[in-house]
Specification:
This protein is α+β, with helices and mostly antiparallel strands and 349 residues long. The protein is built from eleven helices and 15 strands. Strands 1, 2, 3, 4, 5, 6, 7 and 15 form an eight-stranded mixed beta sheet that branches. Helix 2 runs antiparallel to helix 7 and helix 5 packs across helix 8. About 2% of the residues have low confidence.
Length: 349
């Protein structure tokens, strides 16, 4: 077995490994690395384990160098999960050990690994300190072989909510790269309403460009106005939703129901087995929205390895988050759309 950094020449084999291993998220495709580097300038270091020139394990990492804060390696930034994927525990341990060596090489003080594996650090990693966050789950739906079967399995209340969007005159269509401005208008308005810095338009463009045939943009319209938008990423058998947004003043028309139904319909009719709605806090609003489609929670384990002693609560969001959100919501949209992407590139969540 040999562990090394992946190169652009490894892209096809890397993605083949992601497609072959049904538990690996579409976020782990090589395209995420390319988009991170192109749009935000963070250098990505994708570790692979190989045997007789065949990949037998992967660990994608991105180096964050945050001003006045220091460096960290993250698997993966801007999404729910990266994780280490291997054929056995020995390969897993070797990849994690190599990640520590990389952290030491770059003088990074932390390694963050967003995982769905409960005992990922069961054997301990060198002499680094370990903490884990378990406050989030990702909502997964097992998809039957066709959209007809999927629809038939929905409760009547859910079907009526989807039909409500159609009765309200909403129209869904698939978007293209040239629809980026339309997407971003809805997306940036929604992030402003949430009080959160928005991703750059270049980041969305990079995702669409590098994922190519493995991504689709969905748009929902009321007459000529876009009122909902979203993006799905997929591997051979899995679909993930990194971003979905609607304009709040149109939510009474159920644009989110139309958006997600069309995403699910596409997944069911294109041989996908698992639909990942993304992360939620148990029993909160987004959790209940995803649960109504039949999705079930899978615990997320966000590990933090640190060269120094972790202080209690150091890996949790600050208490002033709500206050900052309220300030952000009150700022003009033009201002936050200018500042937001410059801040967002340093927020790994």
């Amino acid at each position: 077995m040999h562990i090394r950094l992946a190169t652009p020449q490894d892209k096809l084999e890397w993605d083949s490994y992601v497609d072959t291993n049904s538990d690996v998220s579409p976020y782990c495709r090589f395209a995420w690395k390319e988009a991170v580097e192109q749009a935000y300038g963070h250098k990505a270091y994708y570790l692979l384990a190989e045997e007789e020139k065949k990949i037998i394990g992967i660990l994608p990492l991105c180096l964050f160098d945050i001003p006045f804060s220091g460096k960290s390696l993250v698997s993966l930034p801007f999404c729910d999960i990266g994780d280490v994927s291997t054929d056995n525990d020995d390969i897993q341990k070797a990849l994690l050990a190599e990640a520590i060596l990389l952290a030491k090489k770059f003088n990074a003080k932390e390694v963050d690994i967003r995982s769905s594996q409960k005992n990922l650090m069961g054997n301990g990693i060198s002499n680094w300190y370990t903490s884990v966050q378990t406050g989030k789950v990702r909502m997964l739906l097992t998809i039957p072989g066709s959209s007809e079967k999927l629809w038939a399995g929905f409760k009547s209340k859910l079907r009526s909510q989807v039909r409500k969007a159609e009765k309200n005159g909403l129209i869904f269509r698939w978007g293209k790269l040239e629809d980026l401005n339309t997407f971003y208008q809805v997306f940036s308005h929604n992030m402003h309403a949430l009080g959160s810095p928005v991703h750059s338009k270049q980041w969305i463009e990079s995702i669409l460009t590098y994922y190519g045939k493995n991504t689709k943009m969905g748009l929902v319209f009321k007459d000529d106005q876009a009122v909902g938008c979203g993006i799905i990423l997929f591997s051979k058998r899995r679909v993930s939703v990194p971003w979905a947004s609607t304009l709040r003043e149109f939510n009474r028309l159920s644009p989110n129901m139309m958006l997600y139904w069309n995403f699910l319909k596409y997944a069911a009719d294109n041989d996908k087995n698992i639909f990942d709605f993304g992360r939620s806090t148990p029993n909160e609003g987004t959790y209940r929205f995803k649960k109504q489609w039949g999705a079930e929670p899978e615990q997320l384990y966000w590990y933090r390895l640190s060269a120094g002693q972790l202080t209690e609560g150091s890996s949790e969001p600050g208490n002033n988050r709500k206050y900052l959100e309220q300030i952000w919501q009150k700022m003009p949209l033009e201002v936050v759309n200018f500042i937001g992407p410059r801040v967002r590139k340093y927020i790994s969540l």
